[in-house]
Amino acid sequence: MNSVQELLAASVISIQNSCFIYPACQNCFSRLILDSRRFNCLKCGCAGEAKDASYRYRLSLKIADTNDLLDITVFGSCLDPFFGVTAENLQRYIQDFNQLSGETNTESSTRALVQAVETCFIGKRFIFGV
């Protein structure tokens, strides 16, 4: 992990993607390849059962300070306070919701999550460590 080089006060202009959670390798934090039963990390070779995969936040934002527009990505547990739960728990809640509601297409739960994230972040000012 890199250390913070400087702090930047900026406003969030937009959310760059709708995938805020990803299955992450516990060793190197790279995205895992998941199938119905197993996971595999292409970077370090870690493997295991899909049910044991851990999840991590990844929020890509377009931000603006007084001079520039920037694209940044915020990773990991620093987002826990904003979402109110860990990425792993949020992933479980989404899966449970989809199962309980009988959703075969996860588009509606994804759309609701995107709307909530946009409401919480867009137009708000934050201090980013870059």
Automatic annotation (TrEMBL):
Cellular component GO terms held in the UniProt record: cytoplasm; nucleus
Leader sequence residues: none
Domain Replication factor A C-terminal per the UniProt entry, residue ranges: 9-95
Gene3D superfamilies for the chain: Nucleic acid-binding proteins
Name this polypeptide is given: DDIAS protein
GO BP of this protein: negative regulation of intrinsic apoptotic signaling pathway in response to DNA damage
Alphabetized InterPro entries for the sequence: DDIAS (IPR043522), NA-bd_OB-fold (IPR012340), Rep_factor-A_C (IPR013955)
Organism this protein belongs to: Pteruthius melanotis
Pfam families: Rep_fac-A_C
